[in-house]
């Protein structure tokens, strides 16, 4: 475990990028010179309607009130040939929700913030390191790093603390 904790997020992503076929979806992605072959991109555009009362008339709601029902979801291939039937934004939306719930820096209308970009990046790396290497996920029965074959066993929080201390000691020495 000589790697610095700040490099964990990048180290986890690289093996995923090397897989044979990756499908990525975004709500509003527009084609901008795709750099790599083997990737398939698609868009899912969701159209929401105005909330209606039981008699069919439009409900007068405030700006952030009420539940607007989705009318249609249009899917289109942008790059490559993604499986349009399984294309969905729910996976990335769930990931964003987890980040917003667990990192105060990303909460909406919150007062938690980072004073410097470096500390912000380190906090994100720490979150994803613990999320992928320490925290056991119920659906996997283990950590994502163990399930993906990156590690043989889950890390302990003590290992994370030691790595974090070693990182700051190296940084102070420079």
The gist of it:
The chain has helices at 8-17, 90-102, 117-133, 144-147, 157-173, and strands spanning 22-26, 39-48, 70-79.
Written overview of the protein:
This protein has a 3-stranded mixed β-sheet, with no helix packed on it. It has one domain (5-16, 42-48, 70-173). The longest helix has 17 residues, at 117-133. With 174 residues, the protein is α+β, with helices and mostly antiparallel strands. It is extended and about 70 Å long. The protein has 5 helices and 3 strands, in the order αβββαααα. It is 35% helix and 14% strand.
- How many domains? The number is 1
Q: How many DSSP-defined strands?
A: 3
Low-confidence stretches: 1-36
Strand order of the largest sheet: 1-2-3
Biggest sheet: strands, sense, closure?
A: 3 strands, mixed
Which structural traits does this protein have?
35% helix, disordered N terminus, alpha+beta, 174 residues, three-stranded mixed sheet
